[in-house]
Amino acid sequence: MAHLDAETLEALNALLQDARASVEVEVALSNGATERAEREMLVSIGIEEVGLCCLLHEYLEANGAFVTRHVNGIVLNIINTEEYDERLRAFAVHQMDSGKRARDLSSATDDPALGRLLGEVYDAHVRSALWSEQRASQFASSRSLEFQTSAERHAGSNEADESLPTSSGGPREPISSSEPSDEAHDHSEDEGSWSEDSYRPPSARENYPIDDE
Known about the structure:
Layout: H1 6-32, H2 36-62, H3 74-79, H4 84-108, H5 112-163
């Protein structure tokens, strides 16, 4: 039975939390995968990850050490990422970070069994990180191509509409802004026809003398 100091114990439990988070993400990604090969790959990665979680848990338990029951909260950040390719990249970053943590811990331990286990964690996480990065790039490229094709199709449809003839057979003319058809009427010409009790402008009013009191 190997003696685990407090620092190693904390690092192993943190690594176990990382591995559990990886399982959660892998399950979510496999459920959302649209291609069979991609789904099978994610399921395979998830099965391997579950095995690593069990091995880490068993190692801690066999050495009489505390075993955490928590999952790294980063799982929510990864799953809630909106774009699928960005979700894969976030998962790849998590896998690479936890893999490096396992490698650093492996170089600091004197227990051969723990060293082999941490080496397995490192190899598995690096492989899944590289696959996720590659798949994210493929998905982003296909999405850009689909968007470009859709934009070109839309532009072609607009050009076809503009080339259609009108009902009279002639080409369509651009629609111009409407202009008033009636000219402004000069009301000053009608002032001479006003009646005595009509309203007249101040200049046309008669000046009446002020009543003497």
